[in-house]
Amino acid sequence: MKIPIIILCILAVLFFLGWLGLQIKPKSFLPYPETTPQLKTIPLPAGLPMPVERFYKTVYGDRIPVIETAVIKGQAHLSPFGVKLPARFLFVHNAGKDYRHYIEATWFGFPFMKVNESYVDGNSHFELPMGTFENDPSITQGAVLGLWAESAWFPAIFLTDERVHWEPVDNKTAMLFVPFGEQEENFVVRFDPETGLIDIMETMRCRDAGPELHKILWLTKSLPGQTIPGSKLSAVGSATWLDQGKPWAIFTLEEIHYNVDVSDYIRQKGP
């Protein structure tokens, strides 16, 4: 049975519109009303593994800023279903302790899928159009590792938080240990041998909800291109599950403010 030409034309137009809508970037979120104040600093600690010391001297020099909070906004591309979706994001951090995410995937610039996610006061919340998870053990484990992976946009916290420590591996690799309740999780951190900056962070993270912690190798990578204003840190990063083989998300930072008041903002939903 032949499909009528008019039906084929309608399908072609719908396909084109679907594709076109995914090529349009959403508008950026409104700027946060506060700006970064003058930051206190501490001396670069002695005894760090060689690539770690090189990294911090490259990024900060001999004085390390004390960063307590961060508000991060930007654009993203997400591929949760194998289709590349434009998005905009807001991340709010109480550094090393709490965070929340708000993400909007868009079509023709209009949001059609919203994500509210948080880890605040030790409680995890993950809200999708398909369902909501509260304090799910696997979601919580993933949230804690997500919190620390995103802290690479303000890596001073890896030195100023006394619960965090580095261990040497070789001249371009080190282990980063971070708290998870009364236990620890860890990242393998690989540094670019030419720039000295962080290239890839690897960890075993839970992806799917459930009481059993089924972990998959998860990689976050700094991508070349634009940098955070006034910094050598990359403003572009990707996240990849090893079994998927390619990034499911690419985030491009547009705005970041440190040490602003997030006491209420981190407990809200939406932008």
Structural commentary:
This protein is an alpha+beta fold and 271 residues long. The protein has one domain (5-267): outer membrane lipoprotein receptor (LolB), chain A (Clam). It has 4 helices and 15 strands. The chain has a 13-stranded antiparallel β-sheet with strand order 8-7-6-5-4-3-15-14-13-12-11-10-9. The longest helix has 17 residues, at 5-21. It is globular and about 75 Å long. The termini are far apart. The mean pLDDT is 91.
Low-confidence segments: none
Any guess at the CATH architecture? Clam
Main sheet characteristics: 13 strands, antiparallel
User: What is the number of beta strands?
Assistant: 15
Question: Numbering strands along the chain, what is their spatial order in the largest sheet?
Answer: 8-7-6-5-4-3-15-14-13-12-11-10-9
Briefly note the structural class of the backbone: alpha+beta
Helical coverage, percent range: 10-25%
CATH class: Mainly Beta
What is the H-and-E element order? HEHEEEEEEEHHEEEEEEE
Mean pLDDT: 91
Can you tell me the overall shape? Answer: globular
